What does this fold into?
Amino acid sequence: MNIPADLKYTKDHEWVKIDGDVATVGITDFAQSELGDIVYVDVETLDEEVGKDEVFGTVEAVKTVSDLFMPLSGEVIEFNEVLEDDSELVNKDPYGEGWMIKIKISDMSQVDDLLSAEAYKEVVGA
It folds into this structure.
């Protein structure tokens, strides 16, 4: 299981890459493997301010639909539109081309609440 050390994580299986006051967010390798083949990613919160732990979208797999939770409060400033035509990228490259949204972080102190790679490994039993 791939859990890059340079990223932050949530207990809800989102990964976060911090670059200044912008965070790139996707779901982890563990999450995509649990979901199975992803057929659709739906994000209706573009250009909206969304609070930490609130739902920012859904991911639909062959066998289930799962909510996507905001890891940090902020404005959703970008959606990876490539996923509209190629949602399988989430399965193929969850930490790269399969990213989902970018957030302009409104409360940088929340970054401290995210999990390290080591702490996330404990969550998933890796």
Notes: The two ends are 8 Å apart (CA to CA). Strands lie at 8-9, 14-19, 22-27, 38-42, 49-50, 55-61, 65-69, 74-79, 101-105. The mean pLDDT is 97. DSSP finds four helices and nine strands in the chain.
